[in-house]
Every structure is written in structure tokens, then in C-alpha cells.
From TrEMBL:
Key word Oxidoreductase present: yes
Keywords: Metal-binding, NAD, Oxidoreductase, Zinc
Pathway per the UniProt entry: Carbohydrate degradation; L-arabinose degradation via L-arabinitol; D-xylulose 5-phosphate from L-arabinose (fungal route): step 4/5
EC identifiers of the protein: 1.1.1.9
Lineage: Eukaryota, Fungi, Dikarya, Ascomycota, Pezizomycotina
Pfam families referenced in this protein's UniProt entry, alphabetically: ADH_N (PF08240), ADH_zinc_N (PF00107)
Enzyme class, spelled out: oxidoreductase
Official protein name in the record: D-xylulose reductase
SMART domains: PKS_ER
A GO term for molecular function: D-xylulose reductase activity
Amino acid sequence: MAEIAEASNLSFVLNKPFDVKFEQKPKPSIESPHDVLVAINYTGICGSDVHYWVEGRIGSFVVDSPMVLGHESAGTIVAVGSAVKTLKAGDRVAIEPGKPCRYCTPCLAGHYNLCDDMRFAATPPYDGTLTGFWTSPEDFCYKLPEHVTLQEGALVEPLAVAVHIVKQAEIKPGHTVVVMGAGPVGLLCCAVAKAYGASKVVSVDIQPARLEFAASFAATHTFTPERVSAEENAARLLKEAGIVGGADAVIDASGAEPSIQTSIHVVRRGGVYVQGGMGKPDINFPIMALCVKEVTAKGSFRYSSGDYKLAVEFLSSGKVDVKRLITGTVKFEDAEQAFKDVRAGKGIKVLIAGPNEKSCRCIGGH
């Protein structure tokens, strides 16, 4: 990192769809004795970031004033509040990019992802982490083990999303699991399901290259759907994967209507279906199949108590190897081009180095 006293708080700001700029923001200060100040080293590009860049909104969240993008970040502690006990300057951390109220019923139950007053990074009107410095509550920063890199640390956020989805799916050792979509979160769901002991993990996608990667990463089987009915795709999937009676759990990490429809026909009677991907607000849904099979259907939103901690443990133990998902890193000033590349489907996970990070280099070539 550059000298902190002179370091830049350059930020990547979205004004409106396809209109971004670099802007120097005031360096944030520690306002609570329980907060820490983090110099951002690396930030991943999430699908929601791209969606805001392209559409200027996600559902009811609308960008109606300039907003700093980014929320998948890792960084280095540079200052701590007077009451901070577990972190110190120089510690490398993965940042959980939300600040819940801590007092409402969901928060008190550990489901702070459902807090009505959540201040989540890069969700209007709150600024994100594609910036030089970020303040965070001490307990929402997770110290990285020495052998885990800051680049890997930036992927703790999507890994925690996958952890939460798999928890929702109630996956147990020996279960059969089908994951719709082989994007970053879908791939990580495969890896986490495997870490939970699933005996068969099927990755489903329409892109052969992604399925090839999924097979080498965590999936035991892959499946390419055809332009036929959901029932036909489901029957062929179960036959090719050797799953009798349906999968114990099906996770949709795509948000695509045909995948969602197929999922309900793939899951077994009494099984669990989890919606992790976000697509159109309203779709045609096979509700009769859901009822007749008595499927438990759940949503999944971000992450809650314990998810980040478990994600870091999976990285530390080597049970999930996120390094393989990192296509490469780009300099901060190349952030807009990185967004264009992600939108064009290039690579799996692109990282943007913070404006004070001097070690930016390409990592891989997926």
C-alpha cells in the first residue's frame, strides 16, 4: 500500500446507467469506538454492480443520486476505534459490507440480512467499497489467515452468499444436489455443497466452457439443458446424473425462468428448493408440482450470522479453492473496462485493485 497519510480516496462513482466517473471523496473517519478504518486492497465485481451500471436499479432500489459501486472487498486495517479489541493496524481482513440496525427482531434473531434498516454497500443510497478507504464495525471484518491472500479475501463475500444458500438448502452428507447456473455463486454453491458432504453435485448451464470448468472445480456431474419443456429437461437431467426419484435439494443460482421451472421438476418429493439467483420480478411457476410434491421452497438473501466466519474457515482449510475463480486483477483506473468485460461474459471473477494498491497483476487466464 502507498503511505496512508498521503493515500488517495479515489472512488468509482455511478451517476446513472453507463455513466461512471472517478472522484476523490473525503477520507472517512472513525465515528464509533467499535469501528475500524480499512484501506481497500481488492474488490470483486458482482452481478448486482453490473446491473446497477446497466439499468440504474434493481427492483425497488433505484440509483437517483451518485453512488460508489462495489461490495466484494478485502483490505488492510489502518486505524481502530478505542473499544476495538480483536483487530489492529496491519491486519488483513475480509469485509462484510453491511451495517444492520442490531435492534430489530430479525437482527436479534441473527437474521440481520432481513433488517429493514440495513445499510448495505452499493445499494442505493449507500456508497460501496470501490474506494480508497472504508469504515466498518469491528465484528463485520474477518481477519484472514496468513496463508490466505487478499485476492482470495475479496471472494469471501460471494462465498458467504453460497454458504447461506447451502444452509437454506439443508444439505447433509450423502445428499444429491443440483445447482442451476455456473456463474461465480453457482460454482461456489457446488463447492460448498461438496464441503457439506453432498455425494452428487450436478452443475447446470447453457455455456459449455462454464460446465467444463464446473466439472474440474466441484461438480460431480454437468448438464446442458435443451430448448424443450421443463419436464423433459428435468427427466433427462435425472437420468444422465443417475438420480432416482429426484434430487434432495435444488438451488437456482441463475434467476432464469426456464431453470426455475426445471428445478421444481428435478427436486424429489419432500425435497428442498432454494432461490438464490435474481431474475425477472414475476415468472410463470409450476405451482402444482410444488404442491403435489410437498416441496419446501425458500428464498436466500445475502448472508447472516456465522456465514462469513464459515466462508473464511472453508478458505483456510482448503475445502473451497476460490483462487481458481479469479480470472485476473486490473488497476483501479481500468475499473470501467473491467465492468465491460464482466458484462461481456469474459472470465469468471475479475478483481479491481484499490487506488492505493501497487501490486496489481494478472493472476490467471480462465
